[in-house]
Amino acid sequence: MPDQLRIAVPNKGQLAEPASAMLREAGYRQRKDSRDLVLVDPDNQTEFFFLRPRDIAVYVGEGILQAGITGRDMLIDSGAQVEEVLPLGFGASTFRFAARDGASMKLDDLRGKRVATSFAGLLRGYLDEHGIDARVIHLDGAVESAIQLGVADAIADVVSTGTTLRNAGLEIFGDPILESEAVVIRQRDAADDPKLEQMLRRLRGVLVARDYVMMDYDVHAEHLDDAIALTPGMEGPTVSPLHREGWVAVRAMVPRASAQQIMDDLWQIGARAILVTDIYACRL
Ligand SMILES: Nc1ncnc2c1ncn2[C@@H]1O[C@H](COP(=O)(O)OP(=O)(O)OP(=O)(O)O)[C@@H](O)[C@H]1O
Ligand SMILES: O=P(O)(O)OC[C@H]1O[C@H](OP(=O)(O)OP(=O)(O)O)[C@H](O)[C@@H]1O
Ligand SMILES: [Mg+2]
């Protein structure tokens, strides 16, 4: 079909399920069987290709697919001609150096040493930037074993909770090499595509619906300024008259994470009938 939007989605790993869940929330069809490689969404004139997260930047960089979801670490590692257009708030990890527990290594100590990683491009770039001449040993995975097995003096790997490193008797050293999360990427310098713009607007809407709640309350007009300072909303809250003399009703979006604190603070200044509701979807 001509003019279909072609989008890459991780087929397995840490990003696969949350990426599909987010697209589903944004109104797109997603596969039901995790072995499916392609899924057509005729209503949105979009085709989804389920690919290895590591390969997604390559397909998008070559202009085969208009956009994709992958990790920022994989995007940088690939060196592909792609740019990050929207961070998605899941798949958060840091990319860090680690060495044998107790080795007390520093970045400078890596000169002339061997560093094992499955992100050779990302690591090489960082070492060059910091003027560290070290040998990069490229492994496919399970990098944590490289020191124990004598193939490297240090490693650079993805860290989330740190459990994997701890269990391997390793400790982090140096500053974080990169803070990563899932991101939407597209080809650098590609012309704007209205269907892709629409997808990005929908995804931004999902992010807002996840991060914000709607708060409604009644407050005496004399405390309205204090109340609005607590709930400034996106572009100023909606204030409506109430039948009750001297009182107004206020409606504003507030960050989900601080909703309980804001309710307590509103109560303290005399607000009542404070209600919080989920936002199902939005376009701001
Ligand atoms: N434990 C984790 N928690 C959160 N995000 C993670 C975690 N491990 C990896 N990631 C992120 O998920 C993305 C994809 O990594 P993932 O491990 O799923 O791919 P992979 O290693 O190629 O696949 P697999 O592990 O299935 O072989 C990367 O951007 C990475 O930073
Ligand atoms: O800090 P933690 O919470 O322990 O998570 C980090 C680990 O998670 C990922 O491994 P994954 O499960 O993807 O296996 P892999 O090594 O095969 O990629 C990553 O490569 C680390 O090994
Ligand atoms: Mg992995």
Features:
3 domains, 27% helix, Alpha-Beta Plaits, single chain, cytoplasm, D-Maltodextrin-Binding Protein, domain 2, binds magnesium ion, histidine biosynthesis, binds 1-O-pyrophosphono-5-O-phosphono-alpha-D-ribofuranose, 284 residues, globular
Fold and architecture overview:
It is a single chain. This protein has helices spanning 16-25, 53-61, 72-78, 120-129, 163-167, 194-211, 224-230, 259-268; strands spanning 5-10, 38-41, 46-51, 67-71, 82-87, 93-100, 114-117, 135-138, 154-159, 170-180, 182-187, 212-220, 238-241, 247-255, 272-278. It has 284 residues and is an alpha/beta fold. It folds into 3 domains: 5-91 and 181-191, 3-Layer(aba) Sandwich (D-Maltodextrin-Binding Protein, domain 2), CATH 3.40.190; 93-180, 3-Layer(aba) Sandwich (D-Maltodextrin-Binding Protein, domain 2), CATH 3.40.190; 212-278, Alpha-Beta Plaits (2-Layer Sandwich). The strands form 3 sheets. A 6-stranded mixed beta sheet has the order 2-3-1-4-11-5, with helices on both faces. The two termini are 31 Å apart. The mean pLDDT is 96. 1-O-pyrophosphono-5-O-phosphono-alpha-D-ribofuranose is lined by residues 13-14, 141-142, 157-164.
